[in-house]
Amino acid sequence: MTDLGVQDAAAKADHMVNPASLAASMIDERAPDIVEALNDMPPELAVAVLLHLPPDRAIEVLDQPGLEREPELITLMPRTVAAKLLAGVSADRLADVFRQVKEPHCSELLDLLDPGTRVNIRRLLEYPKDTAGSIMTTEFASVPSTYTVGQTLDYIRHVESSRETVYAIYVLDPLSKKLVKTITLRRLITGDPEAQVLSVARPGRLITATPLMDREDVARLISKYDLLAVPVVDHGRVIGIVTVDDVIDAIVQESTEDVQKFGGMAAINEPYMEVGFWQMMKKRGGWLCALFLSEMLTASAMQGYEGELEKAIVLTLFIPLIMSSGGNSGSQATSLLIRALALRELEIKDWWHVALREVPNGLALGTMLGLVGIVRISLWQYLGFYDYGEHWLLIALTVGVALIGIVLFGSLTGSMLPFILQRIGFDPASASAPFVATLVDVTGLVIYFTVASIILRGTLL
Amino acid sequence: MTDLGVQDAAAKADHMVNPASLAASMIDERAPDIVEALNDMPPELAVAVLLHLPPDRAIEVLDQPGLEREPELITLMPRTVAAKLLAGVSADRLADVFRQVKEPHCSELLDLLDPGTRVNIRRLLEYPKDTAGSIMTTEFASVPSTYTVGQTLDYIRHVESSRETVYAIYVLDPLSKKLVKTITLRRLITGDPEAQVLSVARPGRLITATPLMDREDVARLISKYDLLAVPVVDHGRVIGIVTVDDVIDAIVQESTEDVQKFGGMAAINEPYMEVGFWQMMKKRGGWLCALFLSEMLTASAMQGYEGELEKAIVLTLFIPLIMSSGGNSGSQATSLLIRALALRELEIKDWWHVALREVPNGLALGTMLGLVGIVRISLWQYLGFYDYGEHWLLIALTVGVALIGIVLFGSLTGSMLPFILQRIGFDPASASAPFVATLVDVTGLVIYFTVASIILRGTLL
After folding, report:
1. Which residues of chain A does B386 touch, with a Cβ-Cβ cutoff of 8 Å?
2. Which of A6, A60, B72, B100 would give a disulfide with A37, using CB separation of 3.0 to 4.6 Å?
3. Is B295 on the interface with A (CB under 8 A)?
4. Residue A82 region, left (φ>0) first, then alpha (ψ -120 to 50), else beta?
């Protein structure tokens, strides 16, 4: 609500195409609000506005993860201006931007940077996606352990404006440059200026990440130990830091991907309205086709019971009901286990504990549904809503027993699938609800018709 | 891996029941690691260990959100010790703990606190669950705007140990006590000690939360503006702050709830292995029964087509395939829209934009599946895997056309349901995959049999 001013400005942009006055109206806004306004403008206008902002504000805007089309905006700027602005943008943001750009444009953009930064960014670009290395920034505050508290404070005052965070300060061994301790700014300011910087360090082991650590695990470290940043350490040396705001973005993105995968589609991280038709078809169509092809097995399974179907057409009435119950119980178990594995409450080796719990769970839930089913059929028969024939009680029994078996099977399949996926190196969240349902559907039909052939033998079948 | 030491210690606790030496072995560990060890001990031992820790470390441990059975542990302590320790625990953590305790025990615990804190906690307990008020802490750093930079720094040094964060400092009007500006510690240390504290404030509007704001919206503010804390303001006065680590916990919890709701069950926030059998039955059984009862409509729908089924038993073969395709396309659309609404990419008023996009999406995806289905039936017929009878081509056509209708209907239902739920005040994430599938299943059957009765009239039907 409060940033209406900026958005109105953007809306009026077409009429009042005066970038200078637009920039002037934005100068006191927060960078994320300016970003929202720029995202709504045609790229040429957005660039013109950026160029009219004071350079430090323009840099702040370019540093925002929310700024869209950043490579395009940079390309539209005069090269010298672009180079000057990019020099101020943080390394992790630059790496993020360059990661979206294909060659040869990526190299062209890299040429705008000074040689030191260029090497730096090239190194960041080499870390695989979603690792600590790929989201870390290389601009952090570090001092040798020979510094005093006062010297460290002076240093922090000096570098404050060029560091993503100065709340965590890394104390290095003066010779080997290896990380000795992490100190916090809040403790630093309480220290005696003459004392050694290590005097304000707190006891306890160092919390560090490795460059190839999954960003989810880095997020877990930061959240567990309530850190503002975690140092990424390679052979004892700090090569970068991951800050808490990078981690929040990562957590939100991961949970979006989890929900979408669970919904049975490839993950899309762009806003819904910005995904093109063909990309949408690719992300949804692939999975939908794969599920459709697997689900065709149900048709094959049904063909196998054609004889039974012809003799007892009444059995077909309950096929959707029975199949969906298996899918639902599987989907519940999967959603529980996906989260338990993601939050590291459980490990792969705990699979049998889970299986031992899901057997009574599945039996109890199945019995519950089975009883409801039997009551429903008996009630309809008794009240005359439908006539299931003279063997209606046996049919009700078939449905009830089949439900116990199917819900048990669904709960077990749904709970074990995330373990199996994790074991073979996939994200457990790929155990989508539709995938589990498909697995359970075919087996559900087999269970149903097997139970039917036992209970109804000699009567209907 | 690194906290193996502590966990081993916990594992050995039964044998070496010497709380003093256990406490001594933990003294240099990080509080979250001590918490993990205590969680694995019987409560009596955990309390004994806590009492052997230096009071400031014990307070730090009690302050950790991960500590389980905290009310029980406190009750097991001598009252005077408990009172001394609780006095050091932060207000938001205390409120969290007390929220888990039922009366009259809650009042007994509250009596351990000094009168000031007690009033404070009682006020926090009044805020509804999941609001900014319920997760905020009342211990923050604030100074009047008449202070100089130097005075503010002195004040921060003085209160540092008793505040959850001192990285954000709230500058208040000396008379009205209303919030004037937020300043950051990093900017404060770079300021001239003689200058007014407001000289280091940055321009731009204040970012604040209201006490009844949803914690998800607070999380969004913190993440958008990269804040370490956001002040909760009531009538212009700061009544507390929400820090970034509270928000991370909130985001993780919300996304767990979203996945579980989407999986078709009531949200469970406890670790999987700690949920009791009956609680599990309640959380899963309720939804499962509700879905089962709705899904019974499929049996009623099928009854209506009994005549068709008897004449063309071949139609039953494709019922599972067709129903699952509707469910899958609905589940995809729902997962996309749940996230888009949760991330505030879309608002309720955008529903028709989404509907306009889902019509071509659903038609295209349905056509794709329809073609695959026609090819499958023709291929089986041609290769002699199964004989669908002389009208096989018409049957294939029926399946193909029905798929287009059902996938279109699934995509539309799945995408509109989250809007409807949000509109009537529910969490859009309650539009679980099984719920969507159930809605689509009944309609899917009607579409299938309607298409069949049109295409197969005069031949099979």
Report:
1. 303
2. A6
3. yes
4. alpha
Tens digits of residue pLDDT in A345-360 = 888 999 999 999 999 9
State the pairing for strand pair A168-172/A141-144. parallel
Kindly state whether B298 is in contact with chain A, defined as any CB-CB distance less than 8 angstroms.
Answer: yes
- CB contacts of B242 in chain A (<8 Å) are none
Mean pLDDT (whole number) for A44-62: 91
Mutate to test the interface with A, among B139, B233, B255, B439 (most CBs of A within 10 A): B255
* Residue A119, number of CB atoms within 10 A of its CB: 12
**CATH at B227:** 3.10.580.10
Residues B288 and B398 in one domain: yes
User: Looking at the domain assignment, is residue A259 inside a domain?
Assistant: no
Q: Which of A225, A298, A373 sits opposite B30 (nearest CB)?
A: A225
Looking at the fold, whether A52 and A109 belong to one and the same domain comes out as yes
**A 85-104 near B (Cβ less than 8 A):** none
Please state the pTM of the whole predicted model.
Answer: 0.76
Contact call for B160 and A317, based on CB within 8 A: no
pLDDT > 70: what percent of chain A? 96
* Alpha-carbon distance B290 to nearest alpha carbon in chain A (angstroms): 10
Does A288 contact B369 at a Cβ distance shorter than 8 Å?
yes
* Cβ contact, residue pair B386, A303, below 8 Å: yes
Q: What three-state secondary structure class fits A23? A: helix
Query: Does A393 have pLDDT greater than 60?
Result: yes
Is B250 part of any domain? Answer: no
Inter-chain contact A225–B256, Cβ cutoff 8 Å?
A: no
Report how far Cα B164 is from the mean position of its chain's Cα atoms.
Answer: 24
Pairing mode, strands B237-243 and B229-234: antiparallel
- Which residues of chain A lie closer than 8 angstroms to B369, CB-CB? 288-289, 292
Residues of chain B with pLDDT under 70: 1-16
B351 interface with A at CB cutoff 8 Å: no
- Taking residue A91's Cβ as centre, other Cβ atoms within 10 Å add up to 18
Whether A245 shows a pLDDT value over 50: the answer reads yes
Longest CA span, chain A: 97
- Report yes or no on A265 lying in a domain: no
Q: Is A399 helix (H, G, I), strand (E, B) or coil?
A: helix
pLDDT digits (tens, 9 = 90+) for A305-337: 888 888 888 888 899 999 889 988 998 899 888
Domain boundary among A126, A159, A188: A126
d(CA B418, CA B432): 9
